[in-house]
Amino acid sequence: MNQNHIATVTTSSLMIDKTIQSNLSTNKNNCASKLLRAGKLVTIILIIALVSSHVQAAKMLFRSNFGNGVSISAPYSYFPTGNGAWQQITGTDKETGYSWPVRAFGSNFSGLQLITMDSITSSTIGDYITNEIRSVSGPKGKTTNEIFQNVKIKGDVGEAGSQSPFVFLRPSTIGDVKDLYMTYWIKYPADLAEKLDPTISSGNWRTHFEFKTGGYGGNTSSGDYRSIINIMKDSDGSLYWLSRGDSNANGPVPFTTYWREENRVVPVPVGEWIKFEVYWHRSSGSDGRFWAAVNGQEIVDYHGPNMGDYNLPITRIMPHNAYSGGSGPVESHITGFEIWDGFPCGSGVSCYNFDTTAPTVPASPKGTFKKYSTFASTTLTWAASTDAIGVAGYAIYRNGIKIGVSSTTTSYTDVIVGSATGSLYSYTVKAFDAAENFSSSSSAVKFTY
Q: Which helix (H) or strand (E) holds 92?
């Protein structure tokens, strides 16, 4: 719960109480008592109303820490030109319960595109670009998995050569992505500023995020609108954020910049984990919006039209792209990736360090135990927990050891093999949210093998 809102309501409630006390100064004590109680009731109602209006109905669509069970395929589908290939992300994240490839918003590809400045083969593409999942010390010092992207050969400073977009593709025939919120943690190399050179034409930029439309002439890669966020280096050596909407979406539309916003106030942290959030609402009217924040600080909040000349839908979403006009290698580290269908923490409100309250404890756990000749199975069910922002999933424990997660359902089946007769099994469940606040354990469900 946002303490600032509570404080605001409390101040108003005190004014209500003081007004009531003043008006009752000549009345009997019992009447004053009744009205004071009424004033406090108004206070409670105001608090509930304000908190309720703050909690949004946004739904989590996907969440992954690239945990155990998730992998990146070897490069495949090499381009006919010889200048690249694709890598798909697959598997179920055992930390979150969500599975790759992502099917949210109609995506039909989730992974990495490898685009090289020179013609390559399967034996040489690794000299140019590598993408891997590895265990690292992540945000807040917690051990986690990351996607590490490394574009090793990219061309001279000022050349937009090799790149590796982390990308979601979708058909142009299924409509637009009108509202979407994405967030993840990213770490840029400590020497990012040194790699960018504003004295050389096109040598001072690094791409951070973008989406593009498509579908012109039936081609999903031919669009009319792009939203992009870049990191730029100024002539004084400082880094800043540049966001804009333009027509550069590989389509037939002449290049036009529709809007542009620079932010030189919010820092561009390097050598450390930072939380990035982005949201858009697509519209041809004044209610269009493109918003982004870094570590809870807003870097852009554009309001206005954000459609192209042909009103084409989004077909390519690139949460990040290892792409730069500076010197190589171009490296990035990403973890804690989430997708929601709207602002989780309130319209225009960053979720950075916002949610510190755990979900409620899963209630009424029940289980069904079945024993077979060579194994046994336990099917658990429980009542759904609630959370101020939203429950992200449930962790299931057997005899105090975490054995799995359920991301979208309040049930779980555990299979036991090779257990001795008479073995006791005790199951408990904890709810968790996207901020990784865990509830206390549910009451135990016990079985004897």
A: strand 84-92
Give the DSSP H or E segment for 228. Answer: strand 226-233
pLDDT tens figures, 315-335: 999 999 999 999 999 999 999
String of b and e for 33-64 (b: at least 16 CB within 10 Å)? eeeeeebeeebeebbeebeeeebbebebbbbb
The domain locations on the chain are 3-54, 60-340, 363-448
The alpha carbon of residue 241 and the mean position of all alpha carbons in its chain are separated, in whole angstroms, by: 19
Q: What single letter denotes the amino acid at residue 440? A: S
Radius of gyration of the chain (CA): 26
CB 217 within 8 A of CB 324: no
Residue by residue, what is the 3-state secondary structure of 115-183?
Answer: ECCCCCCCCCHHHHEEEEEEEEECHHHCEEEEEEEEECCCCCCCCCCCEEEEEEECCHHHCCCCEEEEE
Contact 426, 398 (CB under 8 A): yes
pLDDT at residue 46, as a whole number: 39
Give domain 363-448's CATH architecture: Sandwich (2.60)
Per-residue pLDDT, averaged over 273-293, amounts to 99
Whether residue 264 contacts residue 238, with contact meaning beta carbons closer than 8 Å, is answered with yes
Q: Domain spanning 60-340 has what CATH number?
A: 2.60.120.200
Residue 253 near residue 224, CB atoms below 8 Å: yes
With residue 246 as reference, give the H or E element that holds it. strand 239-246
DSSP element (H, E) containing 376: strand 375-383
29 has pLDDT over 60: no
Q: Are 449 and 436 in contact (CB under 8 A)?
A: no
254: exposed, middle or buried (Cβ count in 10 Å: 0-12, 13-18, 19+): exposed
Number of neighbouring beta carbons within 10 Å of residue 275: 18
Of residues 177, 244, 247, the one with CA closest to residue 216:
247
Q: Where are the beta strands (DSSP E) in 11-66?
A: 60-64
CA 294 to chain centre: 12
What's the order of all strands across the beta sheet hosting 391-398? Answer: 401-406, 391-398, 424-433, 445-448
8 A C-beta contact, residue 291 and residue 348: yes
Q: What gap in Å lies between CA 287 and CA 289, rounded to an integer? A: 6
Q: H-helix or E-strand containing 395?
A: strand 391-398
- The arithmetic mean of pLDDT across residues 269-276, rounded, is 98
Structure pTM?
0.82
Q: For the chain, give the mean pLDDT.
A: 89
